[in-house]
Specification:
Blueprint: H1 3-23, H2 28-34, E1 35-41, H3 52-65, E2 70-79, E3 82-92, E4 106-118, E5 121-129, H4 131-137
Parallel strand pairs: 1-5
Antiparallel strand pairs: 2-3, 3-4, 4-5
Helix pairs in contact: 1-2
Amino acid sequence: MTDTTNISEAAKAVIRRNTAEVQGGGNWALFDELFSDDFLDHTPQPNCTPDKAGALGLYKKLREAFPDFHAVIHWQRSDGDVVTTYKTYHGTHKGDFLGLPASGKPIHFETVDAMRVQGGKITEHWGVANLYSVLKQLNALPQ
């Protein structure tokens, strides 16, 4: 394997651990290990700061709203230290989400994101999440 292949495979493994163990398992100690202290989110969600604390806050909010929150990774591609992942998140709405009280409904939404991994840590994020579909599933859109 070339050095670039090794870097790409190692970066993919970090992103898979974040998706499964942090987002899907609520392992906040691992979050601290996987995210660089100078992490920058280029596409932060509303009311979230674009730093490490903002990402952790978002992850915690999602797990509070959807305690069984988890993702299915459909594919990953890497270009050196940047990994692009297409995945579908799943969960059951058991807590406040975007001002909507718990409904008990199952939801799912697609996300495409790119994360840079340097020295085994996630340093940057760019992403698009289909939160419109969640609002539709929760009957939160005007008819």
